[in-house]
Amino acid sequence: MAKTASKDRAGAAQEAGVPDGAEALPDSYEAALAELDALVARMEGGSLSLEESLAAYRRGAVLVKFCQQQLEKVEHQVRVLDGETLRPVPLNTTGSAMGGDDDL
């Protein structure tokens, strides 16, 4: 019986657009965002069953964590490149950044 329930969950995950091995990570941050967008659209569409919604939610949680880790890595790289001192970008009165690309 446990095998049947496990198979049902796997089938629901596949129908929800979650690939086999739902723990498989995307190739890039952009791919993770695209997959998240697709999952959210399907969930908001209201056509998923409860099991499919749960599988999609779990996959979304994995993708969000992946994106957060990627952003943290990039932030660390920027800190290293900038000598651990991130400088605020001065804004002009219109709210856009002042200066050109020579500030980088």
UniProtKB/TrEMBL annotation:
The residue stretches assigned to a coiled coil in this entry are none
**What segments bear the compositional bias annotation Basic and acidic residues?**
1-10
Its primary localisation, in coarse terms, equals cytoplasm
- InterPro entries named among the record's database cross-references: Exonuc_VII_S (IPR003761), Exonuc_VII_ssu_sf (IPR037004)
Listed Pfam families: Exonuc_VII_S (PF02609)
Where on the tree of life does the source sit, at the highest rank? Answer: Bacteria
What is this enzyme's class at the first EC digit?
hydrolase
Q: What keywords is this UniProt entry annotated with?
A: Cytoplasm, Exonuclease, Hydrolase, Nuclease
Name the Enzyme Commission number(s) assigned to this protein: 3.1.11.6
Provide the protein's localization: Cytoplasm
Does the record bear Cytoplasm in its keywords?
A: yes
Q: Which PANTHER family match?
A: EXODEOXYRIBONUCLEASE 7 SMALL SUBUNIT
**Quaternary data:** Heterooligomer composed of large and small subunits.
What is this protein's function? Bidirectionally degrades single-stranded DNA into large acid-insoluble oligonucleotides, which are then degraded further into small acid-soluble oligonucleotides.
Q: Which family does it belong to?
A: Belongs to the XseB family.
Protein name, per record: Exodeoxyribonuclease 7 small subunit
Read off the lineage from the record: Bacteria, Pseudomonadati, Pseudomonadota, Betaproteobacteria, Burkholderiales
Q: What gene is this protein a product of?
A: xseB
